[in-house]
């Protein structure tokens, strides 16, 4: 087996681990490369929310552009085709819809890198053993949400959505637990009259009440359990796509669902030599001058700064 195949396998294992840990990251794949750039088509890397890169998609200047654009990809939750061009080089064949980054420190060549966000699946917790609860669970899985069934009244900490479809029992206790856990969308399957009675029992604040939906689901004239389940999941998708399921402390990463232990937003600096925005990581070249730390896109810019400014 070729070395590149082993590296791809290692990245695949690492990506699976990150998904299991519910950590957001970006998959970066080189789709075109123009000599003499060091990257080749098919080179891959995983970019963490803090800017750490595992794998290879080019030299340090290219990596800095990938880090910077990966932040945007995670914030928007949308894929991006990144065209990295050296200053003054011949243009790469035009690619409509691509985002362009010009790296003045590149030695030559151009690359196109596809950046694809990998977000933790939205967790939908379902309480109840009714046909509607089963239908909600089924439709939620069909749109790639992670479904957990609630036993007792404990709500999973990572659940942004809680659906109560038990037609009785501990509905109020589950709703209160969901509110206390910070769930952003809580749906109660009930009529207007019974729903109001349950909420009187819960006694939510005005802010909490805004997160409780009863009767829950889009008004599509649903009658059967399957139709009701469809209407509920459709409404969850509507709210999720509008950004309504982002927890208040994590609004810097606008995405469908964010784990509570989300990574902090990475720090950036401007390379004083080439003017490139640099994401600060442990491996970022830097220099301390008169007590001030200067950050650079590559060792070449650092050496130039030492020669021209420090000396």
What does this structure look like?
The protein has helices at residues 3-20, 60-76, 131-142, 171-181, 192-202, 206-209, 225-241, 299-310; strands at 25-33, 44-48, 53-55, 80-86, 99-103, 111-118, 123-127, 146-150, 161-164, 185-188, 212-213, 268-270, 277-279, 286-289, 292-295. It is α/β, with parallel strands linked by helices and 311 residues long. The chain is 33% helix and 23% strand. The chain contains eight helices and 15 strands. A six-stranded mixed β-sheet has the order 3-2-1-6-4-5, with helices on both faces. The model is unreliable at 248-263 (pLDDT under 50). The protein folds into three domains: 4-118, no CATH class; 123-244, NAD(P)-binding Rossmann-like Domain (Rossmann fold, 3-Layer(aba) Sandwich), CATH 3.40.50.720; 268-309, no CATH class.
